[in-house]
Design a protein that fits this description.
Elements: E1 2-6, E2 23-30, E3 34-37, E4 43-46, E5 51-55, E6 60-65, E7 75-79, E8 88-91, E9 95-97, E10 100-102, E11 107-108, E12 114-116, E13 129-134, E14 141-145, E15 149-151, E16 154-156, E17 161-165, E18 168-173, E19 181-186, E20 192-196, E21 212-215, E22 222-226, E23 240-247, E24 253-256, E25 260-264, E26 269-277, E27 284-292, E28 305-310, E29 316-322, E30 333-342, E31 347-348, E32 353-359, H1 361-365
Parallel strand pairs: 24-31, 25-32
Antiparallel strand pairs: 1-6, 2-5, 2-23, 3-4, 5-6, 7-8, 9-10, 11-12, 13-14, 14-17, 15-16, 17-18, 19-20, 20-21, 21-22, 24-26, 26-29, 27-28, 27-30, 30-32
Length: 372
Amino acid sequence: MALLASTSAALIDAPASRAATALDEIHLSADIHTRFPADGGAVLVVGDDDIILYDTALGEAEATAFLGAIDRSDVDAYHAADACGGALFSLSATAEIGGTLLRPVDVFGTTGVKFLDGIAEGIADGVDLDAVTRDPGTCDLVVSFDVTVLLDGQVFRPDDLVRFSGGAFSLFRAGPGSGNLDAAHVLDTGAVLASFAAPVPDLGTAFADQDVVEQASPGSPWEVAFQPAAIDTSWAGADTDALYVVRAPIPGDLRWSRADIDVLEGQGSVDLVIDRVGPNEGPVSVSWTTVDGTATSGIDFGGASGSAAFSDGQASGTVPITLFDDGVVDGDKTFFVDLVQASNGAQVIHPSRITVRIRDDEDFLFADGFES
């Protein structure tokens, strides 16, 4: 694995992800040589058999030739090493790697070992694998073909994603009905990121053939996720042949565990519970503040504001509120605590306000009318 070049300079005008999934890293390969800004105003030229890694947080890029220089061929599909196994590749033309002859219908690793022998599995010679990814839930291979093919009694179009498992092919996700997938990556959230060989009217959104688009779930709208031409104009004439992404942590949503709670004024304090709903990846915090109702801060309760912090994986937290016992029969009173704003992409959802009802314990004590 030869590291060709890297840059520590921030990429100019790098676009943020506009799709539902925030991306930490985007790995791309183009069908032509492309340029990236480099440190000190230099230009990083990246070949068609290189994989470019763009860090969205740092705004930095590096290029790696995992397979070395491939004569008369380039990387046509790529999936980085992950929890399911090593990196996967497919080529645009037949080449020899590690003593193995590899055709465009094959999927193989960095040493040339085949994970899918296309000819042996009944794929016609001359068909290209345009996209290679994995199903994160099963680690099954997921591919796309450059033409319509008939395999295991099923017809697969060039816009379909096809599962290969147990020596058989089956439909993983149907495409939009037209177009040709050039690259794809299936996320563990169920979303699919892809690049198409040309704009597809059925997607319902305008995009170029080098752009990365995302579909959050089957049948949902496609959105533009990343536009490499906004980094460097050399991408305007390029196709994105290979794609892999590392998504950002999904922080989840924050809300009170209940909308109201009853407390006794003599109990001294109450811990109010905040729930972190959905994925709870990465650290987040949420600010909160008390609001007077019929109860008055400083007299009936300790008015305050603050922030509740959640560590990676933490699903709940508490906000402590002090209660004051005034020793007077003055009836029940209420105050509120609002969740105001969350950090790191988390959202505050309903119920964002909790009503705290202070039960007057003196009123309770004299309720039977016998005490003086």
